[in-house]
Design a protein that fits this description.
alpha+beta, UDP-n-acetylglucosamine1-carboxyvinyl-transferase, Chain, 12 helices, globular
């Protein structure tokens, strides 16, 4: 990947978008599949895997735990083997950066290890991200977890002796990853695990986890009550086929599915499936785009998004609680819609890579928009866009990508950049070649 400047001006599209955009594999599925493959007895190959900071941190942590992970970025494959050597060294120091999936999943994995002392830490911002619900639940199952900084947060020191199983309560309101982490290691416990939820949870990512566990040989998780789940411990993880294909990332796809809204035209995203067609809940963003006025068609080859500037793009009100990673995509493009846009169900995103609600409100106001910020919602009323703004990304990849799509609108009609992105390199977290792909699509559209 080419080196990006500290501030990247976005060159607008002067012709409608055309062609194909191939998005990388799902981060959520890649890191879950890496964990489950590490728990299998036989080698596993992951195809279509994402290669980014988050997944590389996860793979390196597994290597430090004794598992062999061979990566071929050009082929998009990860080969996991040598699982019998996991935890053989009796301890490891693991660094998770700002990767929430790696932090939660590795904490649960180390707590379930039969022996050893494991120390986990990340960047300073990771020390502010919610961990308490998972830590408390693992302690109920017999784990010895010491918070060596502030209680309930990273850094952690885990003195592993396995998990005893039985009844456990967990509060996963702040992140569904807390529950997903617990569920994935529950089959390793000495007895079946019965999980009672305290408060709500965003189910799509939990359902993704449960379905992936089944594909890796586990019994279905039984919902024995509205807020009670039972996880069996009678089976080991296994993938008889020896290979697992990772779906394209639905959240990454949201940017290119929305691109025609900014630039007009038609774009195809190969191998991507619509709502309900795969494991990822973020495909629900397709329905929001359709409500706005974008035509999204599912074909045998993938999804196609089409929008003409002659079509009226409509604002509206949507809850993004179940697919909140995509709310920034819509919020950044709300200035292009007719009428106010209200986005709710996003309070929990204040505790992600940054306070996404406050940050989005701040950047939209700098662009001249009328924004009402609430704890759980944003209401954006379009106003004429202010040119010459450098968007602050707060080190958050989703700010960079969302506003990168807005910058594709030829605001002044002269094809000259009117918006720039600070620290565009933060996209390396989940989509390292995002801006390279965006530029390729723009050039292909000019020559089409």
């Amino acid at each position: 990947m080419s080196t990006l400047p500290a501030v990247l001006p976005i060159t607008p599209f002067t012709r409608p978008a055309r062609g194909v955009a191939v998005v990388p594999g799902s981060k959520s599925l890649t890191n879950r599949a890496l964990l489950l493959a590490a728990l299998c007895d036989a080698p596993v190959t992951l195809t279509g895997a994402l290669f980014s900071e988050d997944t590389e941190l996860m793979a390196e942590a597994l290597r430090r735990l004794g598992v062999t992970v061979a990566a071929d970025a050009a082929a998009g494959t990860l080969d996991i083997s040598g699982q019998a050597q996991a935890f053989a060294s009796g301890g490891a120091d693991l660094f998770v950066g700002l990767a929430g999936t790696a932090a939660r999943f590795l904490t649960a994995l180390c707590a379930a290890a039969p022996r050893g002392v494991y120390r986990l830490d990340g960047v300073p911002q990771m020390r502010k991200r919610p961990m308490q619900g998972l830590i408390a639940a693992l302690r109920q199952l017999g784990a010895e977890i010491r918070c060596t900084g502030e209680e309930g947060f990273f850094p952690l020191e885990i003195h592993a002796r396995g998990l005893r199983g039985g009844a456990v309560r967990i509060d996963a309101r702040e992140s569904s990853q807390l529950l997903s982490a617990l569920l994935m290691v529950a089959p390793l416990a000495a007895a079946p695990v019965e999980v009672t939820l305290e408060g709500g949870v965003r189910w799509p990512f939990v359902q993704m986890t449960a379905r992936l566990m089944e594909q890796f040989g586990q019994e279905p998780i039984v919902r024995v009550g509205p807020d009670v789940l039972r996880v069996d411990n009678s089976r080991r993880y296994a993938l008889p086929a020896g290979a697992y294909a990772i779906e394209p990332d639905a959240t990454a796809a949201s940017y290119f599915l929305a691109l025609p809204l900014a630039a007009g035209g038609q774009l195809r995203l190969p191998a991507l499936r619509g709502p309900g067609g795969g494991l990822q809940g973020d495909t629900q963003f397709v329905e929001v785009l359709r409500a706005v006025g974008v035509t999204v068609t599912e074909t045998a080859q993938g999804l196609e998004a089409q929008f003409s500037h002659g079509v009226m793009a409509r604002g509206g009100a949507w809850s993004f609680n179940a697919f909140s990673d995509t709310f920034l995509t819509l919020a950044a493009l709300a200035p292009l819609l007719d009428g106010p846009t209200r986005i709710s169900g996003i309070a929990h995103t204040r505790k992600q890579e940054t306070d996404r609600v406050a940050g989005m409100a701040r950047e939209l106001r700098r662009l001249g928009q009328d924004v009402v910020e609430e704890e759980d919602a944003l209401t954006i009323t379009p106003r004429p866009l202010t040119a010459g703004v450098e968007i602050e990304t707060y080190g958050d990849h989703r700010f960079a990508m969302s506003f990168g799509i807005l910058g594709c609108r030829d605001l002044r009609g002269d094809g000259q950049p009117w918006l720039a992105i600070r620290n565009p390199g933060c996209c390396a977290k989940t989509f390292p070649h995002f801006f390279e792909l965006l530029e390729t699509v723009r050039q292909n559209s000019v020559s089409a």
